[in-house]
């Protein structure tokens, strides 16, 4: 499988292209790295390609917060500047003087 450069970076806020949720990237897999059952559970007509980056997100929608695993083809940058409420964000990230999310020192968490 060919490895692609990731379009989004750790700490970047993104939105799902099709579904109503958004989140912050906390890890990136250069290609699909989840179970075959997970991949096959996605309806074939919207199933993403495996040969692209996949992102681990602290995600949220109007009702709840959760961790999501999303293909690059299904994400777009979120430019809303709306705050995120996922409880794990503050554990892994801090905002710099420009409001950008930066990873906290890994030794501290």
From TrEMBL:
Keyword Transferase attached: no
Cited Pfam families: YccV-like (PF08755)
Gene3D superfamilies (alphabetical): Hemimethylated DNA-binding domain
Keywords: DNA-binding
UniProt domain Hemimethylated DNA-binding: residue ranges: 5-102
GO molecular function per UniProt: DNA binding
Listed name of the protein: Heat shock protein HspQ
Organism: Agaricicola taiwanensis
